[in-house]
Amino acid sequence: MVLQSRWLPNKTEVVAEHGVVVSMHPIASEAGLEILKQGGNAIDAAVATGFAISVVEPMMSCIAGVGYMMIHLAGQGKTVAIEYPPRAPKAARPDMYKVLDRPGAGISIYDVEDEENIVGYRSIAVPGTVAGLCLAHKMFGKLPLAAVMEPAIGLAEDGFEVNWFLALSIANSMGEMSRFPGTAAVFLPDGRPPKSGTLLGERLVQRDLGQVLRLIAKNGPEAFYGGDVAAAIEEDMKRNGGLISRQDLASYQAVALNPRRITYRDCEV
Description:
This protein is of the alpha+beta class. The protein is 40% helix and 13% strand. The chain is built from eleven helices and nine strands. It starts with 25 loop residues before the first helix and ends with a strand. The mean pLDDT is 91.
């Protein structure tokens, strides 16, 4: 998908002497590249890119998301898998959703009343992105966490120019976003999606996100999974029928594992 002004209908080879940073958004890739230029290693760049992409592509990733990271240490011949998957809140239960029985369509466990398993507070799992990215940085990063997160903080607090894909994604989700005042205030200024374009493009500013990122940069993942942030999450959940508690957040841990290996046709996978 082309997000910049050039249209490339075919693939081109990229050659770089000192490293390459790749992501779904040019701005996030530039964040990782800047960290490499500051003397950071590949993990620093990956973590910087991960936090930056949560700012510039909120429809694809966010700090309340989840993920997995595979790290290969060429000098040691070692591979590490870091997992930070979604986890159900302790208050979740098998009958928390009302499954709909649509005549003639059969019954699906995914077809529930008000789409509560897809949209809204009861669709939210305990998030792992902050724990996972911070664990990767703690184990293998070189630069301070504050330096690695600075590009993402700047993008959140100062804003960035909205591209056509983000504007379209917000427009397509207006119905859902309008249900949540906090979300609408950020992504639907004046009740509409932000404009994209070279001349009329608007900037998306996420100051609250920037403040949370600053707390994480200063105090580590504990700033997200505890303290005022966790208390605010729990309060918002209780007020809106959500299930995540401070205990859920405090007990979340990302894990580093040795990945499984198999041999297929004389190749190790």
